[in-house]
Specification:
The longest helix has 9 residues. The protein is 20% helix and 13% strand. It has 89 residues and is α+β, with helices and mostly antiparallel strands.
Length: 89
């Protein structure tokens, strides 16, 4: 089965539906991500209705519209490539 570009897509817990993956179609840096219709279809087929992105770049408006049309909530938390997230003090 195609993963729609979601590399390293794996389930991380047996108790709730929770998966982790690279950005869709990621190719070495965050600005290469592309959320295609195939990527969204894969999420729908796996009953995923919410994603959280920790990338330097958010999805563009067309990609956000694809998610909305599929009733998938998207939360983007910007973290620059190769830098740790800083906790608020």
């Amino acid at each position: 089965m195609s993963t729609g570009g979601w590399n390293r897509f794996i389930e991380v817990t047996d108790h709730v539906l929770l998966f982790r993956s690279s950005a869709p179609n990621y190719n070495g840096s965050d600005n290469t991500q592309r959320l295609t219709q195939e990527s969204v279809d894969f999420l729908v087929q796996n009953n995923i209705n919410r994603i959280i992105s920790f990338n330097a770049f958010s999805y563009n408006q067309n990609e956000i519209n694809r998610l909305k049309a599929a009733h998938i909530d998207d939360k983007h938390l910007q973290i620059l490539d190769f830098t740790p997230q800083q906790l608020a003090s």
